[in-house]
Fold this protein.
Amino acid sequence: MPVPKKRHSNARQGSRRAKNYQLSAKGLGKCPQCGASTLPHQACPACGTYRGRQVIKIKTKKGKKEKGKK
């Protein structure tokens, strides 16, 4: 099996690897209930549904009028 005669520099090694060290965009889908962008196989962060069921209880923000009332 052939063996390299000389060592390759770090710059040469980095330029070779630079082609494959890039970030890729995540594959987002749409929630069928609310239409928000979601990751695949995850519950929707906007409405809390997964595969047609409510799996997470989402807290709603209280308005200024509702904060004073208890």
